[in-house]
Design brief:
The protein is mostly helical. The chain is 61% helix and 0% strand. It contains 14 helices and no strands.
């Protein structure tokens, strides 16, 4: 059944929204300018997609107004803002939730992801660490998908995502040893049916970490472990990117791609090969062609020699 919300209903939901629903997160992070000084903006979606995003935010805002005592109300309000590209607003929403639920590892996990996107890397890492601390020995569970994969199967867990994204964010601060250990741990936490899907992105980031540390043999071993013909559920672009790193796919075949994961892999291969001009040009292109930039590319352009260990 197709979901439809009338204009009147949507208007009523919006008026029921929390006071922070339409207030820009001016202090929530860097959502206006990239690390290289280029302007950032909320993405422009098709009218149909924007309508759905607005409806989802309105519904989540109304649910929060009606049931502010529920942790999930705060989580989904923040997540809906995130999906709409309102990153700093999402940070504010999760921060408000944490004030009410200071022991919520879930709220810390989601705020950390948006703090990374708001280029508040150290605070994001602290939130991930806090999420793990609060989670303690709580049994892991699958994290509900707000934007399901093509077969509607959730493949990631809370603990697995916290560890994975902490490791990924460590790329921004140049803490490459933490990236390596974190990626390995997140793979250990993957469900058996999702292991291949997690092997691919963890290999991608592990390779980059080892290359940045100059440990090229270990980097090669990390990606050579990924064999051709994997049957994946959702991490298809990461798989293509890894095969570019392996030399199995020709980067020239992706010259018209706008996928940041693939283009970042090509840019980094240029950098590792000593083609600084080509690497910087592609990294800059990635940042400029994405309304909200691309923080890994920005980190490479702003501080290519960063070290956090």
């Amino acid at each position: 059944m197709t979901r439809r919300i009338s204009t009147l209903t949507l208007a009523l939901l919006l008026t029921a929204a929390p006071a922070s629903a339409n207030v820009p997160g001016a202090d929530a992070g860097n959502c206006a300018t990239s690390l290289i000084g280029t302007p950032l903006a909320i993405p422009k979606f098709s009218p149909a997609t924007q309508k759905l995003l607005d409806e989802d935010i309105a519904i989540a805002a109304a649910a929060l107004r009606i049931a502010p005592e529920r942790e999930d109300s705060h989580i989904w309000y923040g997540r809906r803002l995130d999906y709409a590209g309102r990153i700093c607003d999402a940070v504010d929403a999760f921060s408000a939730g944490i004030k009410q639920f200071p022991e919520s590892y879930k709220l810390y996990r989601f705020r950390a992801r948006d703090l990374t996107r708001a280029r508040r890397f150290e605070e994001a890492l602290a939130d991930y660490a806090k999420a793990l601390e609060l989670m303690g020995d709580t049994p892991d569970s699958f994290e509900p998908d707000g934007m399901p994969n093509p077969i509607g199967l959730t493949i990631s867990t809370y603990r697995g995502n916290i560890v994975y994204y902490h490791a990924q964010t460590s790329f921004a601060t140049g803490d490459y040893p933490t990236m390596v250990t974190g990626m390995a741990k997140s793979l250990e936490l993957a469900a058996d049916f999702a292991r291949d899907d997690m092997r691919v992105p963890t290999a991608y980031w592990t390779y980059l970490a080892y290359r940045k540390m100059g440990q090229h043999d270990k980097a090669r071993a990390a990606i050579d472990a990924i064999e051709p013909g994997l049957k994946l559920i959702e991490n298809f672009t990461y798989y293509q990117a890894v095969q570019i790193m392996q030399g199995r796919l020709d980067p020239a075949a992706f010259k018209d791609s706008r996928d940041s994961t693939i283009k970042f892999a090509i840019a980094m291969e240029r950098r590792f090969a000593g083609d600084e001009t080509g690497a910087k040009a592609l990294l800059t292109e990635i940042v400029r062609e994405n309304p909200q930039g691309h923080w890994p590319s920005e980190a490479e352009l702003a501080a290519p020699d960063r070290r956090g260990y």
